[in-house]
Specification:
With 79 residues, the protein is mainly α. Helix content is 65%, strand content 0%. It has a single domain, classed as Orthogonal Bundle (Helicase, Ruva Protein, domain 3).
C-alpha cells in the first residue's frame, strides 16, 4: 500500500470517526475502511476510490450497528 493510499485511508477514518464515533469504535471503523479500500485494488481508475470507499464503509458501518442494536421485544396488550 502506497503512502498516498495510507493517507486517504487515514482521512476517511478520521471523517467517519467524527460522524460515527459515538456508535462505532475507531478500530472497527479503521478495519472497515481498510477492507473496502482494498477491495478496489484492481481498479484501473483510482480517482473515485476514496469517495466510493467512504460511502460504502459508512453504509456498512451503519447497517452493522443497526443489526447489533435490536429493540427488545415488548408485549402488546390486547385491551
Amino acid at each position: 500500500m502506497s503512502l498516498d493510499d495510507q493517507d486517504q485511508i487515514e482521512h476517511l477514518v478520521i471523517e467517519l470517526t467524527r460522524e460515527l464515533g459515538e456508535q462505532v469504535g475507531p478500530e472497527t471503523i479503521r478495519d472497515e475502511v481498510t477492507r473496502v479500500y482494498n477491495s478496489f485494488n484492481a481498479a484501473k481508475i483510482r480517482q473515485y476510490v476514496p469517495v466510493l470507499t467512504g460511502r460504502i464503509a459508512r453504509e456498512q458501518l451503519i447497517r452493522s450497528r443497526a443489526r447489533s442494536v435490536r429493540p427488545v421485544p415488548t408485549r402488546t396488550s390486547a385491551w
